[in-house]
Write a structure and sequence with these properties.
This protein is of the alpha+beta class and 125 residues long. The protein is 45% helix and 13% strand. It has a two-stranded antiparallel sheet.
């Protein structure tokens, strides 16, 4: 079993840092090369650059959650979720199918509760 993982190209788990501009502020994001490759695939499906994808994910995360904790971890989890959803055939493997054309309810319907974010807490004054 371990050979399946040990045989991975060492370059795939080497980290690479990229600088991106989010709302006019330059920030650095450090991810393993394999995560960058998956983000490139996700971006290409919707004719976006990786920087555009990251900016869009950041904006939507802030809108949905109000704050961003560890954004690099969020990007890693996003890449893993994408790969898992493709493996489960919830997202077509055909990279010519744009992700924006998919219905999120259909893609995510019936997944275990651990795949869903907890409801957002509302602060009462």
């Amino acid at each position: 079993m371990c050979q399946v993982f040990i045989s991975a190209d060492p370059q795939s788990y080497e980290s690479r840092t990229r600088s991106v501009r989010l709302h006019g502020v330059v920030t650095s994001i450090r991810l393993e090369n394999l995560h960058w490759e998956v983000l490139e695939e996700i971006a290409a499906r919707d004719s976006l650059s990786v920087t555009q994808l990251i900016s869009r994910l950041y904006d939507e995360l802030v809108q949905a959650r109000g704050a961003v904790g560890n954004f690099s971890s969020f990007l890693r989890v996003s890449a893993l979720r994408y790969m898992a959803l493709v493996a489960q055939q919830r997202i077509p493997a055909d990279p010519s199918v744009p992700l924006r054309s998919l219905d999120p309810g259909t893609v995510l319907g019936g997944l275990p509760a651990s795949w869903a974010a907890p409801p957002r807490r509302i602060q009462l004054a």
